[in-house]
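Sync notes, pocket subgroup
Present: LS, DG
LS reminded everyone that the earlier model was apo-only. Rerun requested with nickel (II) ion included. Inputs:
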Amino acid sequence: MKLRYFSHSAFQITTDSGKVILIDPFLDGNPTSPVKSDEVYADYILLTHAHGDHFGDTIKIAKKCNSTVIAVYELANYCIEKGLNAHNMHIGGSHEFEFGRVKFTIAHHGSLTSDNHFGGEPSGIIVTIDNKTLYHAGDTGIFLDMKLIGEMNRIDYALLPIGDNFTMGIDDAVKAAEFLNADVSIPIHFNTFPVIEASPNEFKSKIEAIGRKAIVLKYGQEIEL
Ligand code: NI
Ligand code: MN
């Protein structure tokens, strides 16, 4: 499969069978994204929580592409009320989709929609596609249960927020990578706005200093996993 980074927490996964999955597609209002919502396609949209910098252009993209949104119950229902197709799940639950397996985890954060609806609990997402497992932490502080996530899943790629202020900062994200026993860590949720300025290269060196691997993706870059 291929993983493309749009900046912030937004990713595109293209499976070997050609399905396209977007995660947290915050593009049009995102000053760092090289791609806008009318340039992307999605069979599925995975959402970690309802905040505008994650929900992003979900409605626009899902209407254009007839995508299925996958999110926790309250946020999925909010999408259905907006006229979208959605599959509702919840924390601790996993489900096998045509593209692979999705499991929702806890995240310590909030989840209010931009029009003030309760979006349910914020979440992290474990996605297993084409024999690779990715953990997208969403927005969260560090939590000890990351150890359990790492014990029960072989995490090939951990996508971890490093921007501080709203989420983990660099040092907490390095500890998170250790808890998760992640093979490769990828920093997210930094430098989109001044309040979350952080150095992805500092994160990379601190990950390497504990004997682990990190990749800093450029905005728009796509890698083969
Ligand atoms: Ni948030
Ligand atoms: Mn955020």
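DG: The first strand starts at residue 2 and ends at 7.
LS: Residues 170-180 form the longest helix (11 residues).
Action: DG to write up.
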